Amino acid sequence: MEKKISLLAIALGLVIFCSGQTTGSKKTTPPKNTCVNYTFANSSFASGESLTYAMSYTLMFIWTDVGEVTFTATDDTYLGKDALHFRAVGKSYPFYDNFFKVRDVYEAWVHPKTLKPFYFNREVDEGGYTINNIYTFDWKTNLLYAYIKRKNRPEKHDTLAVLPCSIDIVSVLYYCRNIDYSSAKINQKFPISLALDDELYTVLYRYQGKEEIDVKGLGRFRCLKFGIGLVKGSVFSGKEELTLWVTDDDNKIPIYIESPIKVGTVRGRVIGMKNLKYPLTSKVQK
User: Fold this and answer.
1) CB 109 within 8 A of CB 172
2) Are 124 and 141 in contact (CB under 8 A)?
3) Which helix (H) or strand (E) element contains residue 234?
4) InterPro entries annotated for this entry (predicted)?
5) Which residues of the chain have pLDDT under 50?
6) What is the pLDDT of residues 179-228, one digit of tens each?
7) What distance in Å separates the CA atoms of residue 220 and residue 226, rounded to the nearest whole number?
8) DSSP-assigned beta bridge partners for residue 206
């Protein structure tokens, strides 16, 4: 069950598909030049924002919504310091629970301006397979202290050396929204150092230009289009590429996701947006 497809992972867009090297554990040294230490102040979203995605699966041209994921960003504190609290909650719909029940919660507390993570917690229950994953980031030493507990396995404690730009799998959604793509060239690659389980992954996502796309129930949007390579496993063959559409406005909302898998295709689309920081100017008016 460990490698069954995760609704939340697909919605995050950068969770289970990585390209490039991985580093091991036990204070391993991360590969050099595998990401850019982007510097920016948070500009694309505000505290109180909420995004909800419906996750769909198709086999033989019949699309079925099987679950949803909600992302929220709120003001909070961490060890007495101001922080942003990112929370992502994924669940399968009741009819799909009989096939594969998903109840996932991912949380991160980050610096409110740089979005550097302080603390990350992951609680996953997918088809009865459970994972608890906790990270504590120490930016003075550039070390990450990891705790991993999987069902029917002993607890694992580990230490990873991280890059100044390393990030967790919840914060990455917001981090990437704050990168300036205005000068991006077709096929330009943006590297991210991503912590997952007890490893660091180098994720490369490729800018593919601008495109308009229809989103069921919401209308048509002008978008930035990105392609991301998928890691080989029980769900992916390693030859696929996930496609991600991001609204071409100041919010930079990942509004639509599509990925082929070994059997069928998975899609994610926004079905609810609350408390956006900016007007949704990317929506095409009829």
Assistant:
1) no
2) no
3) none
4) DUF3108 (IPR021457)
5) 1-28, 231-238
6) 889 999 999 988 888 888 788 877 778 899 999 999 999 999 999 999 88
7) 18
8) 189, 227
pLDDT of residue 252: 96
Q: What is the pLDDT of residue 228?
A: 81
What does the pLDDT read at residue 239? 54
* Separation in Å, CA 99 to CA 4, 102, 103, 129, 220: 12, 10, 13, 14, 33
Residue (of 26, 239, 264, 32) closest to 144 by Cα position: 26
Both structure tokens of 237: 């063959």
Give the span between the Cα atoms of 90 and 92, in whole angstroms.
7
Q: Decide the pairing of beta strands 117-126 and 129-138.
A: antiparallel
> Which residues does residue 58 pair with via DSSP β-bridges, in sequence order?
63, 265
CB count, 10 Å around CB of 196? 19
| pLDDT for position 142 | 93
Q: Compute the 3-state secondary structure of the chain and give helix, strand, coil in percent, each to the nearest 5.
A: 5, 50, 40
Give counts: helices (H), strands (E), the chain: 3, 15
Nearby residues of 257 by Cβ (< 8 Å), 6 or more positions away: 10, 11, 13, 53, 242, 243, 244, 245, 266, 267, 268, 269
Helix (H) or strand (E) holding 5: none
